[in-house]
Write a structure and sequence with these properties.
homodimer; about 375 residues; alpha+beta; Butyryl-CoA Dehydrogenase, subunit A, domain 2; Butyryl-CoA Dehydrogenase, subunit A, domain 3; 4-stranded antiparallel β-sheet; 3-stranded mixed β-sheet; 11 helices; globular
Chain lengths: ~375, ~375
């Protein structure tokens, strides 16, 4: 078991750090509105991040899932919105094309997604009214509404999954309406409600079948977990910096035990969340991967909320001003926790895994 | 980055599981008194666990730290006391001899510890009155009391560290008194207060220097973390089994969401703790290793307490009877948390690491 990144991966993460420091430095986008990821799309493409997990034969960088989530977490520690948008494109959409199966159409999609000329987001249309037109499912018609899709407001393309397959559509396909929302947190991630009005979708034979929705869900859980770890990491860092800078009673407040304890506990939680995220991303067994991804998402979302709350307390009243970035991180963390929590779907894979095995737990 | 155990390690953990199932099955030692590890010493030796991390050239099995902590956690999920005693011998004492330095005396010690004819525990005598007899520190005299040493009551030998080195002593050395305690939790781990009354210790040149105390502390933190993960795992397992067995309103209580949520959250916490433990054990950088070990210990001890408390609630009133093993796990977890917590020494390495770095946190 080797839990260290190789030299090449470390180099990648270093260059992503430098990139984030340059384009996304904390504070530069204070409250974050508009589509930052869109504004620096070509810079992200230059780094190869849109297709980072796709093989080099398909013009990608060939990163493992573990390196992929590490990159998303690193971006998210500067801008959770950018982390989420890159994760949606690179791990969910490109991940489906890359890990989803055969060589034909999926390979072509992978090449397209790796180029990053348009950014894509994933739309889970499994609850749309779906009428299959051809008996072989190769032509289907979609009608219905998918609420709160991250990235949809600014994405040029949608990767749509439905019970019988998946397809890549342009956002301006007739019949598709994208209604953007202004949100409390993750304000630059481009949340939108996507409506399909009797949209005809032609599905290649390679992209038929119901495995895509599960894979997309799994990848989305990993992206959520990575973004949450990034938010937690960012909140820890700005809190430590603030505590070392802010003086009370003649010394930095970082010297007071009450602050040290909050910070130590936050650091422990970040590292526990990061460790679980890496283990989930590295899992190779299909049955356990979903359970681990759900665990990582569930855990790191809670951690991100907790650490940003601690961070607000460390910042005192200033934490509530937009002068400090902790205010944005607090909103981002709670938004991320809230979007998944209403239906708590991430608890089901965990419970199935735990109830299915007894003595050796999950490991 | 590879987070899967290799085939050989998996085989080892399987055989440890079978061993634990046979000799330590939950309930067999209900409240656990006496020295279980002593009673099955030769069986533990047959498995090679006393010297599991020592190279085969020294008659050990050559496990990595990661496999070592996985073995301790597996044992501890059946009997936390046995996990702690094996961890004290195999990871702290044998670990010092193996990872502590040069080839000469330390190598001989490693061979001795790998054989497991006597079980050893570690005594941190850094606060004893110490008078150096020879100018080269090769002969020192120890006087003083070390409270609550796990394993000391039944161990045939003590590995003593002090500011200027370490030495292996027999428990019946004149001047050494071992006073056993009856404890609330971890009742079979043989807790004792060790008193040195002007004991002369001859230290080989190989075993001089102050690095041993730090290494012992680091290894002790890993052992504590592994034992806590084991307790948490055990508590989760017995709680799931109980919930699936116990019926209310015509169905097993495992079907009720209130129980499912407690169990899912416990499972997530166990896996986060285990992931952090593995990452701490795999860390190769000396500066970061102590911080990660402290984080793992701090986190998994809290998790173990929390999960056993949830487990008690799932068991209802029966949890307080000695008919169910959750009662012992509850005591074990709180004992483990309590022993380290009075001085909270594990927070210091974490705070140094966090304050020393800013942007990239610990990873």
């Amino acid at each position: 078991m080797d839990l260290e990144f190789g030299a090449e991966d470390q180099l990648v993460i270093q260059s992503v750090l430098q990139f984030a420091e340059r384009y996304l430095a904390q504070g530069q986008f204070g409250g974050e509105t508009g589509d930052i990821a869109h504004r620096i799309r070509s810079e992200i493409a230059d780094l190869g991040l849109w297709g980072m997990c796709i093989d080099s034969s398909r013009h990608g960088l060939g990163f493992s899932r573990v390196t992929g989530v590490a990159v998303v977490a690193t971006l998210a520690s500067y801008s959770a919105s950018v982390g989420l948008v890159v994760g949606q494109h690179a791990l969910v959409c490109a991940g489906l094309a890359h890990w989803g199966g055969s060589d034909g159409t999926l390979g072509t999609l992978a090449t397209l997604l790796a180029r990053g000329t348009t950014s894509y987001c994933h739309v889970d249309a499994s609850r749309c009214v779906l009428s299959s037109v051809s008996p072989s499912h190769e032509v289907v018609r979609l009608s219905g509404t998918v609420p709160l899709v991250p990235g949809a407001a600014h994405a040029g393309g949608l990767l749509v999954t439905f019970p019988s397959g998946m397809a890549l559509l342009s956002s301006d396909t007739p019949g598709i309406t994208v209604l953007p929302h202004i949100t409390l947190g993750l304000c630059s991630a481009g949340w939108a409600t996507v409506t399909f009005d009797n949209v005809t979708v032609c599905v290649e034979a390679d992209c038929l079948g119901n495995k895509f929705a599960n894979l997309a869900y799994e990848q989305q859980l990993l992206v959520d977990a990575a973004v949450a770890v990034g938010i937690a990491q960012g909140a820890l860092q700005v809190s430590v910096a603030y505590a070392q800078d802010r003086h009370q009673f003649g010394k930095p407040i970082s010297d007071f035990q009450a602050i040290q304890w909050k910070i130590a506990d936050s650091a422990v939680d970040v590292e526990a969340a990061r460790s679980l995220l890496f283990r989930a991303a590295a899992e190779v067994d299909g049955t356990r991967r979903l359970a681990y991804a759900a665990m990582a998402a569930r855990y790191s979302r809670t951690v991100a909320s907790g650490i940003t709350r601690h961070g607000m307390q460390i910042h005192g009243g200033y934490g509530y001003t937009t002068d400090y970035v902790i205010e944005r991180l607090f909103r981002d963390a709670h938004h991320l926790e809230g979007v998944a929590e209403p239906n708590h779907s991430d608890i089901l894979p965990v419970i199935s895994a735990v109830y299915g095995r007894t003595r050796d737990g999950l490991s």
